[in-house]
Fold this protein.
Amino acid sequence: MFRISSILTCAALVLSLGAALSGPAAAQDQSVTVNIPFNFSANDRNVPAGKYRISLQAPRYLLFVDTQSTRKQYLMLVQPTWEQNSKGRGHLIFRRYGDSNYLYQVWMPGQGEGRQFARSRTEQETLRELKSSSLAHVQLPTGPAQH
């Protein structure tokens, strides 16, 4: 029953995102390409190291597109965050627990508002087991994405 409910929720999410993307939010699309040198997780999805084009699709969604090999796309649910982004430069922040990396925040260049990921179940379990963490930063380029 839970699985059917999850599938229906995902279907509704995709339909609502499609409607949002066809409106004015699609015109505000900003993207940047970045090389992420390690595997990571976000929204309970494992993402391999590689070069990705990251774009804000709507206020609550980020799209990661593998630009090197598979062209695989990862659509991720995020929350706006207004923590201090003092330099206005784009960067990604990952939480590190041992060898595991979890995407925590995405700050697009020139924007004072970032996007933040909620801790997934997997990350919460990893945190309980290890009890220590660190942050890893990946700097984003300041220019537009190279397609």
